[in-house]
């Protein structure tokens, strides 16, 4: 089993391989933020943040930090040459208008039919849903990056979500440290699996029902 930070970076590296050339991509808070650091320099991607920047670059070095250039999670980011700045209202106009191709988000739970819960834990204080509801409905593709189980060992990929839903039937792909699942017409399919795991082992930590792709591949990151 990978250490937490190692697992997060492994997931982010795998997610970076999903990002298609020439697309506009919004990266959520947590593991998704790391994805920016693993996108190849020669791959033209336009990273978007809902607080008003298109053209986000990788995490800045200590001497590059500019307190006025941050993402929606208030973390410092870099801005690529040619990037553009705009208001939050214009940013959400892009999101709601279907102009964001892909969103990469974290999750508290994902159900076997693609429902997503990623904004509130019952009984705990929350600030609000943020932009997640708009992002998952407005984007053409929703990639979830998450560790397979929570810190207390509970599975995150479940039959039904019992946390408050962000949206129903929106997830396209799930990437954990052990597997990659894709949804095809609301059916969850295992397409990649860690080389030192078996399907039986994976099922023990995955209550959700899933089928196995006939072309199941070994899950590796370059």
UniProtKB/TrEMBL annotation:
Keywords: Transferase. Belongs to the 3-oxoacid CoA-transferase subunit B family. SUPFAM superfamilies: NagB/RpiA/CoA transferase-like. It comes from Rossellomorea pakistanensis. Pfam families: CoA_trans. This is 3-oxoacid CoA-transferase B subunit. NCBIfam families: pcaJ_scoB_fam. It comes from the Bacteria.
